[in-house]
Design a protein that fits this description.
Oligomer: heterodimer
CATH superfamily of the largest domain in chain A: Crotonobetainyl-coa:carnitine coa-transferase, domain 1
Largest sheet of chain A: 6 strands, parallel
CATH class of the largest domain in chain B: Alpha Beta
CATH architecture of the largest domain in chain B: 3-Layer(aba) Sandwich
Helix content of chain A: 25-40%
Shape of chain A: elongated
Strand order of the largest sheet of chain B: 5-2-1-6-7-8
Order of helices and strands of chain A: EHEEEHEHEHHEHHEHHEHHHHEHHEEEHH
Shape of chain B: elongated
Strand order of the largest sheet of chain A: 5-2-1-6-7-8
Distance between the termini of chain B: 49 Å
Number of domains of chain B: 2
Radius of gyration of chain B: 26 Å
Helix content of chain B: 40-55%
Number of strands of chain A: 13
CATH topology of the largest domain in chain B: Rossmann fold
Structural class of chain A: alpha/beta
């Protein structure tokens, strides 16, 4: 079957998480991605432990289906080779700090001058304008400044981070959208362009609707940690915690009556008529009190048993899976979300695959994440670097 | 100038959050998106918060679209629906498994009417497996998908972000909309449409790509460490004399600059801390040392010292007002006000991308129920009297209930 981006070539100057996640999506969709790494490699190769076969797990997660070239762009010949690679490329992606790509000579202006149809994607931390646009920014600093940490932990306690590099991942995804949309435009008009995304822009977009909700007259407390909600750590059971909601969306649904039935069913008859819990607002507002009652009752059930009872009552529910349960879960495996590549040093390695089924252009695992410089000879040979020159460049530490 | 999807037409029958946000992204890339709603509206319209009687959920989730009310129990509206299917480049739905088939809007049916259509489905647990019929929404998706096991204070049992933080509903479209765009690109090259079928549980797991890889490498559940990273040191929010400061050193170069800025250059040359792997191994010796230094001065002092040294650092924002006042948010207009015809000025965010040649942007806040029904019906050749007739029929049905 054809790949969606069959024949598209990408020169990838990114390191870390967001940029490599973007170019991995492009590679998964069939593009040929050449990852140009500085001497010593993408800094993500140094993240960890954990490692597998001497390679950082963090790096392994984000770089399948790509080719790696190790190239020093601070060397004049190294830069010439990089520019030659981009001359015929369809897409260039970079996540240097603002201005650095221009200084290096691989900015949009320089590269579009030799390749007018080029789609050039810049990924930054703090966006295009403003006093801090040149500041270095990373996942943690964006989580802190961008409002993510205020939704975890408790007031008066130290901050808590979101455990995945989620802003980086979302930024990589939005970058992929921008690149594919720009490719679509180019297909229709022949025009290339410069597209930009940033981590700050991404985290604001992820929270977009909450800004609108915040305009309601009953805005309430400003710090989300002070708002009464369902416990965000789930309810303890005999095994894994469980979370649930009664459906709220069905107009006229006798939710309060069903809740009382639910209390009788799980051995909480004594609170069924407690006025504090008479309606949804009472139950939400007193969630902390209710939680203790629930957990006393739920201790008699496993999460699976409790899930069945909740289904009977039409309550959306889910077990709080940990990784050992989740990544061996029959549901996850049945949808082929766990795939495996054979890495030169790490050997057969499981990884997360593709969450979407595409009937005509399925994404594919073709090659494992590359070793540093694994494809230098092949890729540079294609742009006219001879074996002799390669030896010289190796001697000088340029490749 | 117009967006990269100028001229592309999207028929969006999804409700809730994840499907509508995915379609809204297409709208803001330039597509003409018609949100089709039943006479009682997208179910989230029944959910607080409201302002001046306007539900703020659809206002936020369905930006830049037009709303058309269709009563699919009437022949007339079914006919219009089929006209819309012929009109559309992309059809987007997120009903529970089997529902679209019962509505006569399954993929096989629609591709007979419109062979080039891209049929985009945003489901729950995936189309195969024992839980394929189970439903989910944003908060249950993150519970199932392991999010609650990777965040939290050390020693706790883990937690998911509260409403308002990183959530499954906006995350899922970061994957789904990309795949719809890939299908659109493929169709433009080959003329062939396809079905693009995602599931919120699966996108929520795929969002944890790096943590899952670390699990595959070790077989162990990642440890909870509050604000600290399990695999990068230093990377945490340190207490200062007056508040907190988030500091992260992703490279050894950054680490050395941090040591200089903190006045402890000897740490930079200490072999125990020379590489990230060494710092991870010796974190219990290193972190208390750094914590004592940060505790000695206020956040403002460290912000200026670390910025000078080009070390990534930031205050911890705890309120909406902190975000609205952030000079970068303001300079780039990442949150701004738009006027709603009934609710008045409302805040919303910028689009997540910038295009130099095909500008993308927010066209409008989400529509009120049926706000564009008359306009769209007219575009499809319905006469005004039909409209009155329909309104009367609908009113009669509602009264009859």
């Amino acid at each position: 079957m054809p790949a969606a981006l069959e024949g598209i070539t990408v020169v990838d100057f990114t390191q870390g998480h967001g940029g490599p996640f973007c170019t991995m999506h492009l590679a998964d969709a069939g593009a040929e991605v050449v990852k140009v790494e500085p001497p010593g490699g993408d800094w993500a190769r140094q993240i960890g432990p954990p490692t597998a076969g001497g390679e950082s797990a963090y790096f392994l997660a984000l770089n399948r289906n790509k080719k790696s070239v190790e190239l020093d762009l601070r060397d004049q010949r190294g830069l010439e080779i990089a520019r030659e690679l981009t001359r015929t490329a369809d897409v260039v992606v970079q996540n240097y700090r603002p201005g650095v790509a221009d200084e290096l000579g691989i900015g949009y202006e320089a590269l579009s001058a030799i390749n007018p149809g080029l789609i050039y994607c810049s990924i930054s931390a703090y966006d295009s304008e403003g006093p801090d646009r040149d500041l270095p920014g990373t996942e943690l600093t964006l989580q802190a400044r961008g409002g993510v940490m205020r939704t975890l932990g408790e007031v008066g306690q130290p901050p808590v981070r979101f455990g995945e590099d989620g802003i980086s991942a979302a930024t990589g995804n939005y970058a992929t959208q921008a690149v594919v949309a720009a490719l679509f435009h180019r297909l229709r008009t022949g025009e290339g362009q410069h597209v930009k995304v940033s981590m700050l822009r991404s985290v604001m977009h992820l929270q977009s609707c909450t800004f609108t909700f915040d305009c309601a007259p009953d805005r309430g407390q400003d710090d989300p940690r002070t708002r009464p909600t369902e416990p965000n750590a789930g309810y303890a059971t005999a095994d894994l915690p469980i979370g649930f909601n009664f459906p709220f969306m069905l107009a006229g649904y006798p939710a309060d009556e069903r809740w009382r039935e639910f209390c009788h069913r799980i051995g909480l008859a004594h609170i069924a008529d407690d006025p504090r819990f008479a309606d949804r607002f009472g139950r939400e507002g007193n969630a902390n009190v209710l939680r203790e009652y629930y957990e006393t009752a739920f201790a008699k059930y496993t999460s699976a048993e409790l899930s069945e009872i909740l289904e009977e009552f039409g309550a959306l529910n889910a077990v709080y899976n940990d990784f050992p349960t989740l990544l061996a879960h029959p549901q996850i495996l049945a949808n082929d979300l766990v795939i495996e590549f054979d890495h030169p040093t790490a050997g057969p390695t499981k990884t997360i695959g593709f969450p979407t089924v595409m009937t005509e252009t399925p994404k594919q695992l073709r090659t494992p994440p590359p070793l540093l410089g694994q494809h230098t000879t092949e890729v540079l040979g294609n742009v006219g670097v001879t074996t002799e020159e390669l030896t010289t460049l190796r001697g000088r530490g340029v490749v | 100038m117009s967006g990269p999807l100028d001229g592309i037409k999207v028929l969006d029958i999804s409700g809730g959050a994840a499907g509508p946000i995915a379609a809204s992204l297409l709208a803001e890339l330039g597509a003409d998106v018609i949100k089709v709603e039943a006479p009682w509206g997208d179910f989230v319209r029944n959910r607080a918060p409201y302002k001046n009687g306007v539900d703020l959920m659809v206002t936020g989730f369905s930006r830049s679209k037009r709303s058309l009310v269709l009563d699919l129990t009437t022949d007339r509206d079914r006919a219009l629906m089929m006209q819309l299917v012929e009109w559309a480049d992309i059809f987007l739905e997120n009903f529970k498994g089997g529902t679209v088939e019962r509505m006569g809007l399954g993929y096989e049916t629609l591709r007979e009417i419109n062979p080039r259509i891209i049929y985009a489905s945003s489901g729950s647990y995936g189309s195969r497996g024992p839980l394929r019929s189970k439903s989910t929404m944003g908060n249950t998706s993150v519970m199932f998908s392991g999010w609650g096991s990777i965040s939290g204070p050390s020693g706790g049992r883990g937690e998911t972000p509260r409403n308002g933080g990183i959530a499954a509903d906006p995350v899922s479209p970061t994957f789904f909309t990309t795949d719809i765009l890939l299908a659109l690109y493929h169709r433009e090259r080959t003329g062939v449409g396809q079905k693009v079928d995602t599931a919120q549980i699966l996108t929520s797991v795929a969002f944890l790509q790096t943590r899952a890889q670390q699990f595959f490498a070790t077989g162990e559940q990642p440890a909870l460490r509050g604000s600290a990273s399990d695999f990068l040191v230093p990377s945490e929010a340190f207490a200062t004399a007056d508040d907190f400061l988030a500091v992260e050193a992703p490279t050894d170069g950054t680490w050395r600059r941090l040591c200089g800025a903190l006045g402890v250059p000897e740490l930079a040359t200490d072999a125990r801390f020379a590489s990230n792997a060494a710092r991870v191994e010796h974190r219990d010796e290193l972190v208390p040392h750094l914590a004592a230094i940060f505790k000695s001065r206020p956040t403002e002092h460290w912000l200026s010292a670390l910025r000078e040294a080009e070390v990534p650092c930031a205050r911890v924002s705890t309120t909406f007002d902190d975000l609205y006042a952030d000079p970068q948010v303001r300079a780039n207009q990442l949150v701004f006000e738009m006027d709603h015809p009934v609710a008045g000025p409302l805040k919303t965010s910028a689009v997540p991308w910038e295009f130099s040649r095909t500008p993308a942007g927010v066209k409008s806040l989400g529509p009120m129920l049926g706000e564009h029904s008359a306009e769209i019906r007219a575009e499809f050749g319905f006469q005004p009297e039909d409209e009155r007739e329909l309104a009367a029929a609908r009113a009669a049905r509602l009264v009859g209930r």
